[in-house]
Structures are given as C-alpha cells and as structure tokens.
Design goal:
The complex is a heterodimer of chains A (about 350) and B (about 120). By secondary structure, chain A is an alpha+beta fold. Chain A is built from 10 helices and 11 strands. A 5-stranded mixed β-sheet of chain A has the order 4-3-5-7-6, with helices on one face. A two-stranded antiparallel sheet of chain A has the order 1-2. Chain A is globular and about 75 Å long. With about 120 residues, chain B is of the alpha+beta class. Chain B has a single domain, classed as Subtilisin Inhibitor, CATH 3.30.350. Chain B is built from 5 helices and 4 strands. The chains are: A alpha+beta (about 350), B alpha+beta (about 120).
Chain lengths: ~350, ~120
C-alpha cells in the first residue's frame, strides 16, 4: 500500500470518538484493517486548526533517483542523486532532478496523481547516455537523456517540456497504453506533448493564451534555424533549417503523412491531435490543465480507450468525457467538438 | 597515374544505405557508402556478418519497448543480392552496430554528429 496519510494519523483518527469525525474514524479503521504490505512514501503533511476542527492536508513528495550512464549505453548507470540530496553540480543531473520535480508537482496539483504510477512510485532518470547521443526516450521504466551532438542538439534536459514528455509516456503506459504505431502511436506522442506543454505552463503559471506551446525549446544549438522541435499551436513551423529541412508536422487531416519511417510517422502526425488540444485549450482560456487538460487526462485514464485507438476514436472519447464532466451543452464540450472538427478528424456536423 | 584510371569510374560492388528515423525529435537521417573493388572485401564482410534473415522485410515483431526510440533501416546492394533489414534500437547491436557505425564513419563529421 502506498499511503498518503501515515499510519500514526490513521490510528489517531480511528481512536477518536468525536461525533463529527465518525465517518473519518470508520474509514481509518477500515484502512488499518485492510491487509497490506506497507511501503512508506514521502509526503508533506500540513496541519491547521479551523474552528474546533483539526484539518490534516497531505500531499505526496516525489521520490527521484538520477543516474549517470557516463557516456555508455548501459542502464541504469551509476546513481548520482537521490531525493532530498543537494545539487550535484552536474547540469544534466540537476536539470533532470528539477524537471522531474516540476512534472511531479504538476501531476499532483492538476490531476491528484502521485507520480507516473499514481501511487507515489520512484521517478527514475538516467543522464549522459551514450556518446553524443541525440535523443531522449522512455524505456518502459525510466527516462533516459543523451547529451546531444553539440552541432544540432545541445542536450535534452534543458527543456522541461522534454522531461515531462518522457514522463508523460510513462503515464500513458500506466493508463493502459496506446500502440506505438500509426495513429495510436501519434496519439501516444501527442498526449506526451500535452503533458510536456502543460507542465511548463504550470511551472511558469501561464494561461493558455500566454503559453508558447513549443516542445523542446532551447535544445537546438545556435547553428540550427528553428525555435523548437514542435509547435502545438502551429504544427509545421517549429524549424526550417538548411540541414534538417522543414518541420514536417501537419495540422490537419488533409495533410496526414503516410510513411513507414518513425513507426508510421508517430512524431509527424501527432501535429494533428496537438493542434486539436491547442484549439480546445485556447478556446476555453485560463489554465489549460484545468479544463482541456482535465478532459484529455480523464479520457486517457478512464479505462475505456483501446490500445489501437485512432484519431476519430480519441476525438469521440474526449468529446464524451467533456460532455460527461461538464454537460452535453457545456462550453467545454463545444470547445472539444469544434477543435476536432477544425483539424479535420470529425466532420464538423454539430449536434441538434 | 594512367589515363584510364583517371577517367573510368570505379565499379561499385557493394552499396549500403542506413536510415535512422524516430527518436524524440522524429528526424530522419540517412547515410550511405558505395564500396569500390579496392575496399569491397571489407564491406562484404561487414554485410555478411549481419543476420539478415532475422530482420528482413519489415518483421512484424520488432517494436521497441517504451517510446521515442530510434528505428533503423539498413539496405545493402550486392552483385548477387539486395538486402533490407528493419531494426529497433535495441536490435541494432553487435554486427548491425558495426555496419551502421562504419557507414556513418565514412560520411564523416555529419555522421558522427548523432549517435
């Protein structure tokens, strides 16, 4: 059991005979009686008094472990910084540590989700992977970051959107997964980008209208003509470089790219659902994670999304989620419907 | 140096192309080599070391665990055969890695720029 409320507080609650705490006491007794293997998770407990009531508010703390691959392609590498330890002085190590902290805070604050697995599990990352390794990836257990080649990429831990993107893949996988091929793979990529963008906006306190909606801003060297790897607000415009060519992301289904490379273009066609999310979020305004983000998250974690879901299935699912959460005729449901129609995934026929 | 040597193009006996796609960036990079008779034996050996039968023609069970991993496609054109292999990043090891690195090394600094 990963408990947010520690056993000593449960025991105190269970023992109370205060009438107004009867339900809480019963719940505490039931929790204590449940068979469990206790694995303590770090948590922050805030105690305050409101009138004659003791208010206990608990929030989990992250459990981060950063390892150093020391330029080899072997995981996990040498452990170099654990939760609560002081900064290492190694930029990549400390950026990964801080970025995972920001992503953890975002998940908890926005969705009441404790870590990737929702149970306060360890956030593991490895930096300095490989020699001049031009990539960051999720290997099913941990986030892995190369240092870049110094010519095109200058490392991958400098952008919080990259770190939260990789963490987002973990959340997708924990929620049932989306096959990493074709449209379901592009949805997997898009949802990871949504986590990346929203984590950055949350950490900066930005509204949907203020945000850059860029993924990977700052990871290119100065030699590359481009601001970022992807733009959720304007897919296809993130870079236009003599060597790399032009950002190939489409923003509409009419420009969907059929390819055998990149698992069927998962990093290319993700531009379409990325744009749909951006449209929904900016139509609703305010903090993007509170309504648009909430709809996407509940759709992902609702248990009904098939692993091979295509764009149309995800559009229908997010529309249904918005209607269920906010009402069939709500502003939120209409924003989601309009967004999917605008990128050509749905026909745009409105409800009666 | 003879006139013939200067004007006649060298015969290509082995050609290898390496394509890397995917990764967080989703960028596709290509490297290639056309071996001449002078170095054909070395390239033929590198090609022959690879288990092409295990990875030919878009094997269905080749998806890597996780996300944002690289995908590799290797083509080899020989006098007597044309070969192709599709590899996940975790499959691109051993003789495959030796062949891939050799092709990228021929392409110089640009090849070395991305691992």
């Amino acid at each position: 059991m990963h408990a947010i409320v520690p056993p000593y507080l449960l025991r105190r609650l269970a023992a109370t005979d205060e009438p107004h705490l009867a339900a809480a006491a019963e719940a505490a007794r039931a929790t204590l009686a449940a068979p469990r293997a206790y694995h303590p998770s770090p948590a922050t407990i805030d105690l305050s008094v409101e009138g004659d009531a003791l208010v206990v508010e608990g929030s989990p703390d992250p459990d981060r472990v950063i390892s150093d691959a020391e330029q080899r392609e072997v995981l996990p590498g040498r452990r170099v910084r654990r939760e609560g330890e002081v900064a290492s002085g190694d930029t990549a190590v400390d950026e990964a540590y801080d970025g995972l902290g920001a992503a953890f805070d975002f998940l908890w604050d926005a969705f009441d989700r404790a870590s990737v697995d929702g149970r306060g599990g360890t956030l593991a990352a490895t930096v300095h992977y490989g020699e001049r390794y031009d990539n960051a990836f999720w290997n099913g257990e941990r986030m892995v970051f190369g240092d870049g080649d110094g010519e095109v990429f200058q490392g991958f831990t400098g952008s919080i959107t990259v770190i939260a993107h990789e963490l987002g893949h973990g959340v997708v996988e924990d929620s049932g997964g989306l096959d990493y091929q074709g449209q379901s793979g592009a949805l997997n990529e898009s949802i990871a980008d949504v986590f990346g963008a929203l984590t950055e906006q949350h950490s900066l306190g930005q509204s949907a209208g203020e945000a850059s909606w860029l993924i990977g801003e700052g990871i290119f060297t100065d030699a590359v003509q481009g601001s970022a790897l992807r733009s959720m607000s304007a897919p296809g415009t993130a870079y236009d470089d003599d060597v790399l060519g032009r950002d190939p992301q489409p923003a509409h289904m009419r420009d969907y790219v059929e390819t055998t490379e990149d698992n069927g273009g998962v990093h290319i066609n993700s531009g379409i659902p990325n744009k749909a999310f951006h449209l929904a979020a900016t139509a609703l305004g305010g903090r993007a994670w509170e309504r648009a983000g909430c709809v996407w998250y509940l759709t992902l974690t609702g248990g009904t999304l098939a692993r091979d879901a295509d764009f149309a299935a995800f559009a229908a699912a997010t529309t249904a989620t918005a209607a269920a959460e906010y009402g069939e005729n709500s502003e939120e449901a209409e924003a989601v419907r309009t967004a999917w129609a605008a990128v050509g995934v749905t026909s745009g026929v409105t409800r009666d | 140096m003879s006139h013939e040597t200067e004007t006649e193009p060298a015969e290509t006996v082995v050609a290898v192309t390496v394509v890397r796609s995917g990764g967080f960036a989703g960028l596709t990079r290509r490297w290639g080599v056309q071996a001449t008779p002078a170095d054909a034996q070395r390239w033929r050996a590198l090609v022959d070391d690879c288990p092409w039968d295990e990875h030919g023609d878009r094997c269905t069970d080749q998806r890597a665990t996780g996300a944002d991993r690289f995908s590799w496609t290797v083509h080899a054109t020989l006098p007597d055969a044309t070969l192709r292999a599709d590899l996940t990043e975790t499959q691109a090891t051993g003789p495959w890695r030796a062949l891939i690195d050799a092709v990228r090394e021929v392409n110089g600094a640009a090849a070395n720029a991305s691992s």
